């Protein structure tokens, strides 16, 4: 039976004793990433701002970041990451049913960056859409893609996180502009049969949250209906206060839903915003930094791109291996936060 037909024949989810027992699993079969060529070291900021390499490293763990050059857009970087993921999975765009792209910095107000990627990949079937949950965007995108696969709506989904946050920086605000970077990462999820236990490969559980009362902690002070592009504004220390507690809680909730505990985790692949948040979350979960994939020193905070970038780099480094239990977690503007537990 051809692969596509075999996948279509996979059973749908069923519910037993009130608990969802997945039999169609969304399994990662390919990863890829793209980073723009321009690398900016912390020391560059010393020329224009009252800051230092030492301060940025100590408070955030960031040493350098990539910034988009004139030709780079969110969709062009997303397409490059997607092509790398397709190559890794030995698939072509024709094998993909859907594209879910997490971004807060799409090329245009509309159409979605996802449909632009669809066209750039030469994909003329299926469907594509963007998800906007700022730095939690990739976790939200993974949850959407998992639901599409679990329900039988799609058999292979390209899930991308791509951002050009350099376009919304206020270059005079030292408390934000040194923290962010640009880039894109992509995963391909494929429907495969699982036994419904947490030993299955694929996405095992998810947890999503948001609380709009915290809008003023992290936002862009412009948008279509206010007729400007705007710049990122953040009360960093307030965001920090929420981050560790909410991230450890969402990760633990997602693990619990899968019948797993922190001790079962091989890798935390966190949103890469700040090394102190990453360390604090691992500590709160009772895990060592040896169990954490860290890329923040080289990428800065790439918002929705940071988790797929870290997954792709973690695989390339030989850290993440088939069968490993991974928990990804992220928090960002909204506030919006969440976690996904998956077996690689
Ligand atoms: N260089 C030097 N000094 C800086 C600076 C910079 N780039 N940015 C801020 N400062 C100064 C502040 O002006 C402040 O000075 P003051 O005490 O004279 O007012 C001082 O450093 C401390 O500022 P504060 O914001 O309390 O520092 P912090 O230890 O909280 O670190 C962040 C700042 C932004 C690194 C930290 O709060 C953080 O990472 N927060 C989370 C942000 C985040 O991850 N957001 C994204 C979530 S998706």
Structural class, please?
alpha+beta
Range of strand content: 25-35%
Evaluate the radius of gyration.
19 Å
Mean pLDDT over the full residue set: 94
Number of strands: 15
Largest beta sheet, briefly?
5 strands, mixed
Ranges where pLDDT stays below 50 over 5 or more residues in a row are 12-18
- Helical element count? 9
Bound molecules: coenzyme A
Gross morphology is globular
Strand order of the largest sheet: 3-9-8-6-7
Descriptive overview:
This protein is of the alpha+beta class and 344 residues long. The protein is 29% helix and 26% strand. The chain contains nine helices and 15 strands. A hairpin with a 2-residue loop joins strand 1 and strand 2. The longest helix has 22 residues, at 236-257. The model is unreliable at 12-18 (pLDDT under 50). It binds coenzyme A.
Summarize the SSE layout with pairings.
Blueprint: H1 3-8, E1 14-16, E2 19-21, E3 24-34, E4 38-41, H2 53-60, E5 64-67, H3 74-89, E6 98-102, H4 113-120, E7 127-131, H5 137-150, E8 156-164, E9 182-193, E10 202-210, E11 218-220, E12 232-234, H6 236-257, E13 267-270, H7 275-284, H8 296-299, H9 306-316, E14 325-332, E15 336-343
Parallel strand pairs: 6-7, 6-8, 13-14
Antiparallel strand pairs: 1-2, 3-9, 4-5, 8-9, 10-15, 11-12, 14-15
Helix pairs in contact: 3-4, 6-7
This protein binds coenzyme A.
